[in-house]
Structure formats: structure tokens, C-alpha cells
Specification:
5 helices; 10 strands; cytoplasm; nuclease; 2 domains; alpha+beta; about 40% strand; Alpha-Beta Plaits; four-stranded antiparallel beta sheet; elongated
Length: about 160
């Protein structure tokens, strides 16, 4: 079977979203299920079916979601409502929308973890320190059960 000519193909748009927290490792399939669930709960079954959202890939702290042209704003709003993937709390922040994945790959900036394997004590609890560009600092509680995350800037951390 021959492929359809470009004039007869469905027009698609691709949405680039940043995955927060940066260190989160999520499965692409589980992320797809979370995006579909968010789209159907926000837009309804009919509108989500027309938008046809699909996770194209998930790597390096970024996610690319494909949808039909004209529905990218609705899908971007649905991405903002995703709060967890397979019992891991995450957030998706839309960075850009384009007609090609190639254009979005140019917008991806590598997220580098800044040096500093530190430990800090807040109250009676010890936290591991993760530093990121733009003065973002994550504190993750040391321990096995009931881990919690605190979010600071470098200025807040220096005050302690």
C-alpha cells in the first residue's frame, strides 16, 4: 500500500513539555495513560478523541506529545493538569508547540545537575540537596518511608 500524499494526511502538531522534578524517571507508556486520563477528564471523551493526544517520546527531562492541528491549546491545558505518573508525583510544563519534532529538538536544552552532593538539616530532618540551573534547589528527605520534597532557591539555602 502506498503512503498518502501530504495533502491528504492529517495535520499534526507537537507539544514540547518539561518534566518536573528534573530527576523523575517515568515510563513512556505510563505517561501516555496519565495524559489520556487528564485529557478525557478535562475535555471529555469526544473532544479527547478528536484531539488524539499521544506521547511520542520521553527522555532527558522532556516530553513530546502529538495531537491534531487546532487542538494543541486544549492538549497543553490538559498537560498542565497531570499530577502523577504511576504513583510518582510529577508536573508537565509546556515549553513550545511546533509542526515538526525536529524544530522542538532544537528547543530542548540539556538539564544538567550542578555539582554539590550536600546534605542539609531542616528542623530534625536531613535532606539531600539537588541544585539545578536558574538557582533552583530541591531538597529530598533522607529515608525510606514518607519522603517529602522541599523546593528552595539558592538564596533560601544560604540563609539556613
Amino acid at each position: 500500500m502506498r503512503p498518502r500524499p501530504p495533502a491528504m494526511r492529517t495535520k499534526r502538531r507537537y507539544i514540547l513539555a518539561r518534566l518536573l522534578p528534573y530527576r523523575a524517571q517515568v515510563d513512556q507508556r505510563q505517561l501516555y495513560f496519565s495524559v489520556i486520563e487528564a485529557a478525557t477528564s478535562l475535555l471529555g471523551d469526544a473532544a479527547a478523541g478528536l484531539a488524539q493526544p499521544a506521547v511520542v517520546f520521553c527522555e532527558g527531562g522532556y516530553v513530546v506529545v502529538r495531537c491534531r492541528r487546532g487542538t494543541e491549546k486544549d492538549v497543553a491545558v490538559a498537560l498542565a493538569t497531570v499530577t502523577s505518573v504511576a504513583d510518582e508525583r510529577i508536573a508537565l510544563r509546556t515549553v513550545a508547540t511546533s509542526g515538526t519534532i525536529h524544530a522542538l529538538r532544537r528547543r530542548m536544552k540539556p538539564i544538567r545537575h550542578l555539582a554539590g552532593d550536600e546534605e542539609v538539616k531542616v528542623g530534625e530532618t536531613y535532606f539531600a540537596v539537588y541544585r539545578y540551573p536558574r538557582q533552583k534547589v530541591d531538597l529530598v528527605e533522607k529515608g525510606i518511608k514518607h519522603q517529602k520534597s522541599l523546593f528552595f532557591t539558592e538564596a533560601d539555602l544560604e540563609e539556613r
